[in-house]
Design brief:
This protein is mostly beta strands. Helix content is about 0%, strand content about 50%. A hairpin with an 8-residue loop joins β4 and β5.
């Protein structure tokens, strides 16, 4: 299946504790169906101090399910993603505006 959401896309969270917040996708795991969004779904992780790094309580962005994310169109509204062929290439487009993403 083609990737509807990719790294670098601006997305909005549809459900959960961060509902309505927006951010940029940092990484996607298509096999697990999850994505890490910058500044969203933050959890505190305790790290032991090493010679290279400072220890302590470190905030880390945890993965979100792809079904809880929607891409933002040019009007900053949540939209679904469609695919179409343009000039012999498959491109993603926003269903609300019809613009190529």
């Amino acid at each position: 299946m083609a990737a509807k959401l990719k790294r670098g896309d601006k997305v909005i969270v549809l459900t959960g504790k961060d509902k309505g917040k927006t951010g940029e996708i940092r990484s996607v795991d298509p096999k697990a169906g999850k994505a890490v969004v910058e500044g969203i779904n933050i959890a505190i992780r305790h790290r032991r101090q090493t010679q290279a790094t400072q220890g302590g309580r470190i905030p880390v962005a945890m993965p979100l399910d792809l079904s809880n994310l929607a891409i933002l169109d040019s009007n900053n509204k949540a939209t679904r993603v469609g695919f179409r062929m343009e000039d012999g290439k498959k491109v993603r487009f926003a269903k609300t505006t019809g613009e190529v993403i």
